[in-house]
Design brief:
4-stranded antiparallel beta sheet; 7-stranded mixed beta sheet; mainly beta; 120 residues
């Protein structure tokens, strides 16, 4: 009923930039918090950034000052602008959204992920 699709990943050199997008579609009444998570090979999935429906943001210490999360509620889309990328940022990036469907209680939805690779 609800699905999230990420885009914008790719290969970039150290110090470069990428902009990730995640669009939610389906029978959506309201989207609460949205966020980005990432998982590197052999590591646990970790939180990167979150944003509330009113625009309040939170970032992992490792990305503060380099990444910016934003959202467009009219488009049901969340973005992640990534600047000054480092090889340590290499991971699969996943979009997450807490969604209230038309007549169902709120629940979390995940995208399939988009690969970000930063070369040294």
């Amino acid at each position: 009923q609800v699905q999230l699709v990420e885009s914008g990943g790719g290969l970039v050199q150290s110090g470069g930039s990428l902009r990730l997008s995640c669009a939610a579609s389906g029978r959506i009444y309201r989207i609460n918090d949205m966020g980005w998570y990432r998982q590197a090979p052999g590591k646990q999935r970790e939180l990167v950034a979150t944003i509330t429906s009113r625009g309040s943001t939170n970032y992992a210490d490792s990305v503060k000052g380099r990444f910016t999360i934003s959202r467009d509620n009219a488009k049901n889309t969340v973005y992640l602008q990534m600047n000054s990328l480092k090889p340590e940022d290499t991971a699969v990036y996943y979009c997450n959204a807490n969604v209230v469907p038309s007549i169902r209680p709120a629940s979390d939805y995940w995208g399939q992920g988009t690969q970000v690779t930063v070369s040294s």
